[in-house]
Design brief:
This protein is of the alpha/beta class and 215 residues long. It contains seven helices and nine strands. It folds into two domains: 40 residues, no CATH class; 173 residues, 4-Layer Sandwich (Metallo-beta-lactamase, Chain A), CATH 3.60.15.10.
């Protein structure tokens, strides 16, 4: 989020939301006068209470880097966020290239995900060309499908494509490449989708899916 977006959220009716941020980012919020911030190291977690009960958020490592200017490269952490409730497991991959981190994440949470992995995963699929330059910071669609498989996701949704022209592929190439990668890696069309603007997906609660698995 940019500064204007963060300020808008912090000044909304009802007060500032809680911002969970990578280690090193809290000072940026403090300089804006925003105090409702919790910093997390990799694998640290934070619990909040919500209308659906306890929610646990775990900050995970992924493969990228950090920096907003020429002078702050690697000064803060970067990563993904896993969100757990009794009835839903969600993972936001974040900005990443492909790495063994995703198999490690699956192993880390295997005890609480015995039958399948996350109910929903958001996976980036854009800004990947040329590979010699982008491969260490952005996944391509085929690597996105591999992340889906590594995390044993029930449903994945593609993001990080079609908005800004950041790389050599056309803005509408990623979903086409995603379709080819799904077919090649044996993933159904419905399991990993690039939804349209305004489109809604409705997913069942985890307990309902677990009952389907048992039966």
């Amino acid at each position: 989020l940019d500064e204007a977006s963060v300020r808008s959220l912090a000044s909304q009716s009802g007060g500032s939301p809680l911002f969970l941020v990578p280690a090193g980012v809290k000072s940026w919020f403090s300089n804006l006068g925003i105090a409702n911030v919790v910093e997390l190291m990799w694998w640290q977690s934070h619990r909040v209470q919500s209308p659906v009960g306890s929610v646990e958020i775990v900050f995970t490592p992924v493969q990228h880097w950090s920096g907003r200017t020429l002078t702050d490269r690697m000064d803060t952490l970067w990563g993904g966020f896993a969100v757990f409730t009794d009835d839903f497991h969600f993972f936001h991959v974040g900005d990443t290239s492909y790495s063994p981190d995703f198999q490690d994440i699956a192993k880390r949470f295997a005890d609480r995900q015995p039958d399948y992995g996350f109910d929903l995963v958001l996976i980036p699929i854009g800004a990947y060309a040329p590979r010699w330059f982008m491969k260490d910071q952005h996944v391509d669609p085929a690597e996105g499908v591999q992340i889906h498989k590594d995390l044993r996701a029930r449903q994945s949704v593609a993001y990080h494509w079609g908005t800004f022209s950041l790389s050599d592929e056309a803005l509408d190439d990623p979903p086409v490449a995603l379709a080819a990668a799904r077919q090649e890696l044996g993933i159904s069309e419905s399991a990993f989708v690039a939804i349209s603007i305004g489109q809604t997906l409705k997913l069942p609660a985890r307990t309902a899916r677990w009952n389907q698995v048992k039966n």
